[in-house]
UniProtKB/TrEMBL annotation, chain A:
GO CC aspect terms: plasma membrane
Transmembrane segments: 20-41, 334-355, 387-412, 454-476
InterPro entries per UniProt: ABC3_permease_C, MacB_PCD, Macrolide_Exporter_MacB
Lineage: Bacteria, Bacillati, Actinomycetota, Actinomycetes, Micrococcales
The protein's name in its UniProt record: FtsX-like permease family protein
Keywords: Cell membrane, Membrane, Transmembrane, Transmembrane helix
Predominant cellular place of this UniProt entry's protein: membrane
Protein's membrane topology: Multi-pass membrane protein
Automatic annotation (TrEMBL), chain B:
Alphabetical list of Pfam families matching this protein: ABC_tran
GO function term, MF aspect, one: ATP hydrolysis activity
Keywords linked to the UniProt accession: ATP-binding, Nucleotide-binding, Transport
Gene Ontology CC terms: membrane protein complex; plasma membrane
Presence of the UniProt keyword Calcium in the record: no
Lineage of source species: Bacteria, Bacillati, Actinomycetota, Actinomycetes, Micrococcales
Protein name: ABC transporter ATP-binding protein
Top-level taxon: Bacteria
PROSITE patterns: ABC_TRANSPORTER_1, ABC_TRANSPORTER_2
Organism the protein comes from: Cryobacterium melibiosiphilum
UniProt-listed Gene3D superfamilies: P-loop containing nucleotide triphosphate hydrolases
ABC transporter domain mapped to chain residues: 2-222
InterPro entries associated with the record: AAA+_ATPase (IPR003593), ABC_transporter-like_ATP-bd (IPR003439), ABC_transporter-like_CS (IPR017871), ABC_transpr_LolD-like (IPR015854), MacB-like_ATP-bd (IPR017911), P-loop_NTPase (IPR027417)
Length: 494, 223
């Protein structure tokens, strides 16, 4: 009887069934789309963050930059290249000089590597790796042979220019000079640790990545994009702090358009030695044993290392900028509220229609009670009708929602994203080929095609909401129907 | 057998208290056909609700057989309505979305009878009231007289001991009224029912073995 009655009621009152189902369908479709887009945006954010911080990194530990005390040089300040009188090689009246230096990136503060040991002793830390973010700046130039212009030597060489005459020599042969400045980012990391850290998220495109045996060896892995622009390949050498490194591999970010965290990767101990930062690191990448332990790990590290800055992935997510960030904000704010409002409206419509249906069917329920139907039987009947209306709405909503997701995936909007990392602090003066900041900006900015995933949990959520909506409306309507006293229900229509 | 003793029923209407039944005492033996007449607002429907276990008296007792309807809980009153009492209403009170057969089946639903038996018994009940060919018709596809026949089939399909009819011919023309009354009388006679009919219509009341009159809540026998 329950099924027959339910089927007849839904079929016989098509208008009400359709209105309730459409309301529920719209709400559920919106919830599905907002949830799926939200998941897509989160995936995109995670991809951007992974390209910078590495896969599996839950927490990063760094130290905020502090102003140098008076008389102290500080780190990462303006760079200065000093050349002595005898520096460089002279040929044909032109002296060539060059110098390259490896120093902490501007805005980066280094701290003692023993912090890594402290972090690894914190409960629920499954892996941790330390890195040293550096910048290699090389200065090369050609100047006229100054020895030739020195007055004390003039008589001996007989080349002193006459009064009012320009010195000869230099790259243009007329006493001029030429200089070039190049800069790229260098990341020193433990070559034995692949589980966590920037190299854990990259894809090896050529050669090999760093291995434990590379410790204290002058080998480097290059970001593929940087290698292309610098015309470098596996087997070539790259000069860092006036030291030649053999390029053993090229890596690229897992996303097609993103660059990796640094231009060049070298063993940490070599980086420390060349930069003069023995036993110093700039960042520690930490993996927690479980996502539920992240907050505890963060708190414990902050306690153990009070001077450090400890960021979790959610903190890092806020550093993602660009249209991806706008999309995230839009989904979080407008999308969430819109879906909540539509959902509440759909529930309200379902409840009001059910109550109005019960009121209209007062005589029907009064009659059923008069012929012996129990309150429970009437509540089940009303709740069953509402539940099925909700499920119909849920089914239509899932179809509409999936269609919406399909459309979004077909359109595949491109989102640009930037991650505010320490490398971005390099951005500043420059702008010419190989100038300061270019590589850093490339490392932190990427275009992401928004891919909206369909997950089982989203479908489950939709079904759950439709059941919930139907049950709430049904229980309220059923309670109202059961609270009718049969005599009053019949009297009201007499 | 009904035994009503000093039954009083009062309702609150705002600050006013309305007395619908005043010290009503009456015995109705099994198998009797009784007509209850009286002016509108006189207490006919209230008395029928007491007899039908739809409401409890404010004072006094209503007994049906061995059951005291004045003191039983909602659940037990529901069971008595489901098994012992059949109702026929002036407005037929059929469920518009259900077919004639399904409407009749609703009376068997509370009894936990299997679907196949429900269907066959509903079909038999409809055949007994002359609607064996209209099983799948919706109420809107039936005339007033046919709808009342479906309502009678619904009331009798569970084989009650009492049939309560509230103005069963009130919405029907004279010819149909006579058909319905003949049907009710035939069923009453054949099944040994206690038939209590509330009516305005003197012609209908004249068919009963016993006539009661109720006015301003006071019940009197009509000689």
């Amino acid at each position: 009887m329950f099924t027959t009655y339910l089927r007849r009621e839904l079929a016989g009152r098509r208008k009400q069934t359709a209105i309730v189902a459409i309301g529920m369908a719209l709400a559920i479709a919106l919830v599905i789309i907002v949830n799926a887009v939200s998941a897509g945006v989160q995936n995109a954010q995670a991809t951007v963050l992974e390209s910078v911080y590495g896969v599996g990194t839950d927490i990063t530990v760094s130290q905020e930059a502090v102003a140098p005390t008076e008389g102290e040089a500080g780190t990462g300040g303006p760079q200065r290249f000093d050349f002595g009188a005898d520096d460089g090689a002279t040929t044909d009246g032109t002296t060539s000089v060059s110098q390259s230096r490896l120093e902490p990136e501007r805005g980066t503060t280094t701290f003692d590597a023993s912090a890594l040991d402290t972090v690894t002793t914190v409960d629920n830390v499954s892996a941790a790796a330390a890195t040293l973010a550096l910048s290699n700046t090389s200065f090369a130039g050609e100047v006229p042979d100054m020895a030739a212009t020195d007055s004390t030597d003039a008589a001996a060489t007989g080349t002193m220019p006459a009064a009012g005459e320009r010195p000869a020599g230099g790259p243009d042969g007329a006493g001029g000079s030429a200089f070039s400045v190049d800069s790229f980012t260098v990341l020193g990391l433990d070559p034995a640790d692949e589980a966590v850290g920037p190299l854990s998220s990259v894809t090896l495109t050529e050669g090999r990545t760093l291995a434990a045996a590379d410790a204290d060896t002058n080998v480097a892995v290059l970001d593929s994009s940087y290698a292309t622009t610098a015309s470098l390949a596996v087997g070539d050498t790259v000069t860092i702090a006036d030291t030649d490194f053999e390029i053993v591999g090229l890596v690229t970010a897992t996303t097609a358009d993103a660059a990796t965290a640094s231009n060049v990767y070298i063993p940490l101990d070599v980086a420390q030695t060349l930069s003069g930062l023995t036993d110093q690191v700039s960042d520690i990448y930490v993996q927690a044993s479980a996502s539920t332990a992240i907050n505890q790990v963060q708190s414990d590290i902050e306690t153990a290392l009070p001077d450090s800055t400890v960021n979790t992935q959610s903190d890092l997510a806020s550093s993602v900028s660009g249209s991806l960030s706008s999309a995230s904000d839009l989904v979080k704010n407008l999308g969430l509220w819109l879906s909540l409002i539509v959902l509440a409206a759909a529930f309200l419509i379902a409840i009001l229609f059910t109550i109005s249906g019960v009121t209209r069917r007062t005589r029907e329920f009064g009659t059923l009670k008069a012929i012996g139907w129990s309150n429970g039987k009437i509540v089940r009947q009303v709740a069953g009708e509402s539940l099925v209306q909700g499920l119909i709405g849920g089914a239509v909503g899932i179809v509409v929602g999936l269609a919406g997701i399909l459309v979004i995936n077909l359109v595949a909007p491109t989102l640009t994203a930037g991650a505010a990392t320490s490398t971005e602090a390099m951005g500043g003066p420059g702008g010419g080929p190989g100038g300061f900041g270019e590589a850093a900006a490339a490392a932190a900015t990427s275009d992401i095609l928004l891919s909206v995933p369909v997950t089982f949990s989203v479908i489950l959520l939709a079904v759950g909401l439709s059941v919930l909506g139907g049950l709430i409306a049904g229980m309220i309507g059923g309670w109202r129907a059961s609270s009718l006293r049969p005599a009053e229900a019949l009297r009201s229509i007499a | 057998m009904y035994e009503l003793t000093n039954v009083t029923k009062t309702y609150s209407q705002g600050k006013r208290t309305v007395t619908a039944l005043k010290n009503v005492s009456v015995s109705i033996p099994n198998g009797q056909m009784v007509a209850i007449q009286g002016p509108t607002g006189g207490g006919k429907s209230t008395l029928l609700q007491m007899l039908g276990a739809l409401d409890r008296p404010t004072d006094g007792t209503v007994e049906l057989g061995t059951s005291n309807l004045s003191t039983l809980g909602d659940g037990k009153l529901g069971k008595i309505r489901a098994t012992e009492i059949g109702f026929v209403f002036q407005g037929f009170n059929l469920i518009p979305t259900l077919t004639a057969q399904e409407n009749v089946e609703t009376a068997l639903a509370p009894l936990g009878i299997p679907a196949s038996e429900r269907k066959s018994r509903a079909a038999e009940a409809l055949a007994a009231v002359g609607l064996g060919e209209r099983l799948t018709h919706l109420p809107a596809e039936l005339s007033g007289g046919q709808q009342q026949r479906v309502a009678i089939a619904r009331a009798l399909v569970k084989e009650p001991t009492v049939l309560l009819a509230d103005e069963p011919t009130g919405n029907l023309d004279e010819d149909t009224r006579d058909d319905i009354m003949e049907l009710l009388e035939g069923l009453w006679r054949d099944r040994g029912l206690t038939l209590i009919v509330v009516t305005h219509d003197t012609a209908v009341a004249a068919r009963a073995q016993r006539r009661l009159h109720i006015k301003q809540g006071v019940l009197t026998e009509v000689a």
